[in-house]
Model the fold of this input.
Amino acid sequence: MGHWLLKTEPDVFSFDDLLRAPGRTTGWDGVRNYQARNFLRDGMKKGDLVLIYHSSADPPAVAGVAEVVREGYPDPSQFDPKDDHYDPQSAPAAPRWYQVDVKAVRKLARPVSLPEIRQTKALAKMPVVQRGQRLSVQPVGAKEFDLIVRMGEQ
DNA sequence: GCCAACGTTGGC
DNA sequence: GCCAACGTTGGC
Done:
C-alpha cells in the first residue's frame, strides 16, 4: 500500500472541509504541476493512505488522514473557463491534468507541525521539510507515515 | 538548446 | 511583506 502527502491551504480547503464534504470525499482538483500530476495519475492507488497537510498555516501542519477512493481521472476544472484552474491548452481528448478522489479517514487528535517534523530525526528526510520543496503531492515512507500518525494521536 | 525573465509556492 | 527556490515561457 502506498502512502502520500497532499498539501492544501486550509483557508481554501481544510481537513475540516473534507470531513464536512458529502461522503467525507472530494476530488483533489487544481494541481498544475507535472511531477505532482504524474503521482496523481500513475502513482496513487485505491486504498492508499494520505496525510493531509495544511500549508501557509500557522504553523504548517499535518491535520488528518485520508484514503484514496478513486484513482486518477481527468480533472474537470481544466475544461471550465470560469474556473481558476482552467487550462485552455488542455484538450478533452488528451487531458493534461488529473485528480484522485480522497475520503477523510480521521482527524488527528492534534496537528503535527512542520517544526515538530523538522525536529524529529526519523522524519528529517521527508521532502516536506526540505528547503524550497513546493511539490503539492509527495510520496511518504510507511514508517514516516506511521510515526506522524502516532505523534498526532498522542 | 540555452538562459534570462517572470510567476508561483510557501516558510518565515 | 519578504524572499529563496523552483518551474515555465519565450527570444534568440
Notes: Helices of chain A lie at 15-20, 34-43, 114-119, 142-153. Chain A has one domain: 3-152. Residues 7, 9, 55-56, 59-60, 114, 131-134, 136 of chain A lie near DNA strand B (CB under 10 Å from a C1'). The CA atoms of residues 29 and 76 of chain A lie 8 Å apart.
